[in-house]
Structures are given as structure tokens and as C-alpha cells.
Design a protein that fits this description.
single chain, alpha/beta, TIM Barrel, 3 domains, 8 helices, 18 strands, 23% strand, globular
Length: 329
Amino acid sequence: MNYDNLEMRGKNGVKCMVCNHYCELSEQQTGICGVRKNENGKIKSTVYGKVAAVSVGSIERNQFYHVLPSGFAYLAAPDGCNLTCPFCGTYESRKETGGHEKVDMMPKDIVRDAIEYGCNAIAYGYSEPTVYIEFVLDVAYEAKRNGLKNLLSTNGFMSDIVIDSMTGLIDAVNLDIKCFSESKYREILNADLDVVRGNLEHLIKNGIWVEITTPIVSDFNDSINELSATAKSIAEIDKNIPWHLKRFFPAHKYKSSYPSSYSIIHEAYLAGKEAGLNYIYSTCNEEAKNTVCPACASKLIVRCNQQVVKNNLTEGRCPKCKQEIPGLW
């Protein structure tokens, strides 16, 4: 595949067009993500095929509750990220593997392994997959050729060019809305909330199935006012977007903090309901583990520990009232 549109000539070097940092890199300079470098006047992905983490798990564990229930996903992730989240849950493990030899895996290797493990999809996550988008799209192309779905988890700070490049290859995206404060996004995360929200709408417009995750982080975004604002902003776009409330555990620069309380997660759940969201999920809340019909309240997909126990959907509809349930079934 041709990726010439992922860079352009700048005033003092080559401008990377992969994310909204738009780093302009001089010869041998590396971007904010740490994995894109100007080599001989061209942007090179330094982690292409260099896999730092491999796993097989339920699709639900990748925070996709409206995609192939009971299915399994194969994840093979290089390193790299373009944000500076001080509560990052994978930072320590990625740091530990930073100086270690990576596993060389080409796109066909990953798809072959996924099929051998009986997986229904390839998952792209653990790090930020959009910063090594060439590798993602090459794997996704092979996956599509072999009948597998492609599921990508992202911080949502990619460029419009990347979203358009994903369209037709990436089936579903789980996008993080990490807080609802422009100042926190800018000053703490090194990103932009308006860009993330705009990318959410762009993904939906392009026909990509989207679910949203908000990590509820102690002393960062765990005020009910902020969580309510997040819920309302999602509902304004589409009340059928699934919203995942993720419990935080101390990590990275927030090691001295404490896990997010069950009570604030429950309050966020109620705020989502008040905002009109039809599908709100949390592993910490019994009523938020299952998919329930918004029309008649029938239990449609019953889950335990992010595993599907029972799937009552009939061709994507509630068997009782025939309400259509959005997703990739």
C-alpha cells in the first residue's frame, strides 16, 4: 500500500501527517510518539513489524460489547504513543519491554496465528496503534482477505488522513474520552479535546462502528459534573454509542493515588442514563455488565468477567419486541 500521504514537505524538514501534533522532523529527528523518524528525507515507522506484546482474549476484554459476542481477538502490538497520560495503565509494562528484543512479525504472520488460535478478529491496542498506522493497515488488509474483523482502540488524536485511510479496513473503533476538560487535555495529556470529539464524529460519518471508553481516574476526572458532561456530549452525537466506564488502578505517575470508587462509577452510570444513553457498561456494576433492550428492558447479552454467558439476540434484534440493536453482530 502507498503511504505517501502520511507525510509532506515542511519548511525545516518533513512533516508527519499521522496525528494532530503534525511534527516537523529534521534529518534523524524522532516525533513526539517516539516511533516515527526522518531518515533520508522520509518518515519511517521504526517499529514496523517489531511486536512488543501478543495476546489472545475475548473481544469483550478489548472493550467492544457490540461486536461479535463470544468472539475472540488476536492482538500483536508494537510500542509507541503520542499522549502523555500520567495514569497510563500500560506504561510500566511497555517501559520494561523497551530495551528488550522485540518479536519480528509481519502482517501475514499475525493473521496466520490469529486463524490458528480460532480468532474472529485482530485487535490493535495496548499502545497507540495510529502512530504505527502503516503496520496496522497492512495487517488489516490481510485480515480482511481472510475474513477477520479489525478492531482498533485509540486515544482519538489521529489526523483526518488516518481516519480516511482506515475506512473500509477497520471495522470498529473504541475511542477514549479521557476527561471533559480542554485544559486537562492540553496541559496534562498533550492533546486536544475538540480534536478527539471531531474525530469521533468523523469515524461515525465514515461508517466505522464506534464505542467509547472513559477511564475514571481518581483526582483527575472523577467529579460527577465532569462525568455528566462527558455523557451529555456523547448523547448529543448518538444515544446508541456504547459508553464503557473503566475503573482506574494506581499506575505510572499516579501510583500513590487510589482505585476509583464503586460509588463514583455508579454515579457515572446514572448520569449516562439521565443523559439518555442506551448502552452503558462497567464491570463494577451488576446492572451495567449486560446488554439490555432499551425498548422493553429484556436482557439480550448476559456477561460475567467480560465473557458472554448468554446471547439472546436474534439477527441483531431483541427477540421479544424486535427492537434493532446497533452493532456488528
